[in-house]
Amino acid sequence: MSDQSTPSTGTSGASYAAAGVDIEAGDRAVELMKEWVRKTRRPEVLGGLGGFAGLFDASALKHYERPLLASATDGVGTKVDIARRMGVYDTIGRDLVAMVMDDIVVCGAEPLFMTDYICVGKVHPERVAAIVKGIAEGCVLAGCALVGGETAEHPGLLGPDDFDVAGAGTGVVEADRLLGAEHIRTGDAVIAMAASGLHSNGYSLVRHVLLDRAKLDLDRHIEELGRTLGEELLEPTKIYSLDCLALTRTAEVHAFSHITGGGLAANLARVIPDTLHAVVDRSTWTPAPVFDLVGKTGEVERAELEKTLNMGVGMIAIVPGQSVDVALAALADRGVDAWVAGEITDRGDHGTGAALVGDYAS
User: What is the pLDDT along the chain (362 residues), one digit of tens a residue?
Assistant: First the structure.
């Protein structure tokens, strides 16, 4: 627990418990989460849960010629409100790991370890443990260890059922294997990897359109979704870390782009050099029904949807033309739905960055 202070010695004076902080509940939450944290353990991790800092044996990096550490931090935004409304807490942690570790893998780095921060209005031990369970499951999917974290109880600032999550992660990449814009060339292919759904971005728009304006019930079965609205909105973000690393070992990869807040074009533009331009053809895929649901229900223009939501693409790999077949085969072997969605061209009159062209396949 955070913000611990010296307890009052008076019998009728103020106390930490009277102020709304339950240290015993926090201790119970730690006990419940221990088994899930153990499942993420890597051989480089020293010590156990409960120390003031997580320890990672850096001697494991000795075989690197010039190891570069990559770090990232993120949260899952207002998707936590959907989890709170649904009373489902064991998936939001996977979203957190995806947001952090899939940013790290973009440069070619192997995820090593992660820490989390869970802030609640009131500690419900089983609820906190469920959140950590999701984080631990995400760490296993990303190949990293969960080495520590913090659970903070903030009565008076948050309601008893309110919470938020954030995390930070570290990875490592050999300097001469660092991926990025400097490797991209004209004629490279843009390979898209399918998203599992909305992932963890744009939920302020989604909530505004579907819940606040349309007043849709989260328990309502939506025929075009094939499940309830709440189940769709809580679909965990796909974690691509190990898939991307496997791809770099199988095929030549010049760059990755994690499609998060800002949409496909804006995130792809972040890895495109000023002299080149990325063209993505919408006709190469059909966005999942949830995107159409948001667009039609809220009368949201396509440009607004595309700069807010991932539109069905969660990760991009940019590879040379001769590596396309090998790359697609490698991703298919790992069960990743992927396709060639575009190409890299000279800048010409297009300007810098990336653009979507054509219409989505029906």
Answer: 333 333 334 455 654 555 555 556 556 556 656 665 666 666 777 766 666 777 777 888 899 999 999 999 999 999 999 999 999 999 999 999 999 999 999 999 999 999 999 999 998 888 988 999 999 999 999 999 999 888 888 988 999 999 999 999 999 999 999 999 999 999 999 999 999 999 999 999 999 999 999 999 999 999 999 999 999 999 999 999 999 999 999 999 999 999 998 999 999 999 999 999 999 999 999 999 999 999 999 999 999 999 999 999 999 999 999 999 999 999 999 999 999 999 999 987 666 689 999 999 98
* pTM score: 0.89
User: Domain for residue 113, yes or no?
Assistant: yes
C-beta neighbour count of 50 within 10 angstroms: 10
CA angle centred on 266, ends 362 and 230, rounded to 5°: 55
Give the residue numbers spanning the domain of 90.
21-57+64-177
Give the CATH number, domain containing residue 129: 3.30.1330.10
**How far does Cα 139 stand from its chain's mean position?**
11
Residues 112 and 141 in one domain: yes
For residue 257, which of 249, 265, 247, 246 has the smallest C-alpha distance?
265
Q: Into how many domains does the chain fold? A: 2
User: Which burial class, exposed, middle or buried, applies to 290 when counting CB atoms under 10 A from its CB (0-12, 13-18, 19+)?
Assistant: buried
For residue 59, give both structure tokens.
Answer: 């001697």
Same domain? 173 vs 188: no
Evaluate whether residue 5 is within a structural domain.
Answer: no
Structure tokens at 131: 């959140």
> What's the angle, vertex CA 317, arms to CA 93 and CA 347, rounded to 5?
130
Residues in the chain: 362
Whether 238 is in a domain gets the answer: yes
